[in-house]
Amino acid sequence: MASQFTIFFLILLLSTVLVIGEDHGFGRSLDRKLLGLKKEKLSHFQFYWHDIVSGKNPTSVPVVRPPQNTSTFGFVSMIDNPLTLGPKVSSKLVGRAQGFYASASQQELSLLMVMNFAFIEGKYNGSTITVLGRNSVFNSMREMPVIGGSGLFRFSRGYAQARTHTLDPKTGDAIVEYNVYVLHY
């Protein structure tokens, strides 16, 4: 009887040590299958981003103006820009870019882009891809990180390439081609 008690006590002690050894108080490892995560897929999305600052119904609205002693540094604009399949704003709407951009450099026109590509089309309807990064506007191609998303893009990562298609110097309206590469489940 004493030996059964000793074995039981050792098993209980070992189990306690194993459990305590894995508990970090605020985080733990999970089996990805418990969250329904499968093998990752790589997807490519190509669309046009329409930044409309002029007219009666702008999709980009300034919310913070820069101080008087700087050119654009400190400027912040909130956006709800259409995402279309073609460069014309009248082409098929596939989603909206929602968020803001801010002028983050004192030496050049470089923007901090914080936006969700919120899709409204096909199997991606209701899903978002989140981009957070630096956009050096006058570079021919800019690359920004994809830091996550929602819906089909939960736990996603990747990058977005931006190329200016057109920029109207009179109005400030711009059309930017985006190619987004996303690893997701």
Automatic annotation (TrEMBL):
Compartments it resides in: Secreted, Extracellular space, Apoplast
Listed GO CC annotations: apoplast
Residues making up the signal peptide according to the UniProt record: 1-21
UniProt record, GO biological process: phenylpropanoid biosynthetic process
A Pfam family the protein falls into: Dirigent
Keywords (A to Z) from UniProt: Apoplast, Secreted, Signal
Assembly behavior: Homodimer.
PANTHER family: NUCLEOPORIN-RELATED
Similarity-based family: Belongs to the plant dirigent protein family.
Function: Dirigent proteins impart stereoselectivity on the phenoxy radical-coupling reaction, yielding optically active lignans from two molecules of coniferyl alcohol in the biosynthesis of lignans, flavonolignans, and alkaloids and thus plays a central role in plant secondary metabolism.
Identification of the protein by name: Dirigent protein
Organism of provenance: Castanea mollissima
